Amino acid sequence: EFNAPGIGSLKEKFDYLKMDEDERRRFDKHMDYMRSEWGMIASARQEGRKEGRQEGREEGRQEGREEGRQEGREEGRQEGREEGMQKGMQKGIQKGVHQKAHEIAAMLRQKGWSAEQIAEVTGISTDEIS
């Protein structure tokens, strides 16, 4: 028994040539059928892979969208908190400045300053100074 490359192929060809005409026709018909089956199997595999990739892409996109939405919500909440804190601090500072101006106005009024002088120095309207 030889093990050289190509020996198996030569043996198959030799066996084919040894067949009579009817055997060759049946063998050829069988091989055509097998090639057709293999082709259908290969096509089905290829179609299955294509569908699988498409489904995988769609699932990946959906997961990506959901993750993006979640990240966006979290970022939005964080930005909202920061903006709220900033506005709250600004409002508190403004209120404190306004309150301090009124305290200064009251002290200046006790020292005898006129409402016009106090308004000029503190920025408070003369209507607010009593």
TrEMBL record:
Residue stretches of biased makeup (Basic and acidic residues): 46-85
Region annotation Disordered: where it falls in the sequence: 44-99
Protein name per the record: Essential protein Yae1, N terminal
